[in-house]
Amino acid sequence: MKRVDCLKAIAEETGDALAICTVGGAAAEWNAIRPGDGNFRCRTLGLVSSIATGLALALPNRRIVAIDGDGALLMNACGLPTLARQSPANLIYLLFDNGIYEASGLRSTATKAGADLIAMAKGAGVKNACWASSVEDFMEELKSSVTRKAFSMIAAKTERGIEYLKSWRRLPSFQHGEVENGFRFMRYIEKTEEIRVVPLPGPRN
Amino acid sequence: MAPEDGPKIILESMKEAGINFVTSLPDFNLAKLIELVDGDPEIKHVALCREEEGIGLCTGAYMGGKTTAIIMQNGGFLNSCNGLTTTALNFNIPMLLMIYYAGDIGDEGFSTLGSVTEPVLSGLGIRYYVLRKMDEIKNTIKGATLLATDSRRPVAVLLTKNVLGTRR
Most CB atoms closer than 10 Å: which of A51, B18, B109, B160? Predict the structure, then answer.
């Protein structure tokens, strides 16, 4: 299964959802499939699930998707019980498990040795958590999670390897650096939610 | 103003500063404050399993329009350093860091932790204010929150037993 095919399904099914995306290949692929200011590229390995939860709790009427990887989730595995405890109904958590630290040296993650991230999520109390066995299955689960209106986590075992890594490095580059991406994301939320995030400058003295 | 009123005054000050989203992980000395935060209907409170998560949660909530704080021990602050650097500082995200100062002057235990707390805050370029006097609670918390918002960076308030009502 290719991650890029699952990402296409996400873009199709979740429309203008705000997306929090992990570091590395997934962000490059997602940017190519659904470019725009509604995507935030996380820079701290592991914090995708936490940032997405905070955003989902602050904007309960907005669909939020989190796009994460196995290495990242393992870094912040204690975020799973917190996710389960909060279970924001407007959040869909999508996990791509390729068994390697794809963007940082291609060494194996613990999932290669048998760690089952969906079993961990269920053990942490996440009620709607499943593995998708094919792109079609992934799409079906995604459709169910959109209509379910309850926090859902869908994981897929996806391809890995050097050739694959080379291919995402040939994807179009990001239009903005990471800091500008952050500000544009916040401005996009301000515009589409009609709220103020970054306050206007106060009186100078 | 009795020291046992500290947690209540701290919560009032946080609310007057506009804080409406709080993440926390307890220390014995923070238990009363966290209990008050948890029971306040005007604040969304998220209990954490590890403090770095809280930096992510506060970041996401800020992006959704909230004014945020994290309540933790200084050991938890050390757990949060990567998130503070590569998320909060990197993306100009303000948040109030309410850090219990374990290993402070007059304490028994945690002296190693106490000795590295202020140097690490300085190393990260995070401005911090040590709260030791009851009559400084309100101005310090409101001022630190305003400074965080204006500078678009995390700002820390180090909470001592003197203001948490736990000094024996």
Answer: A51
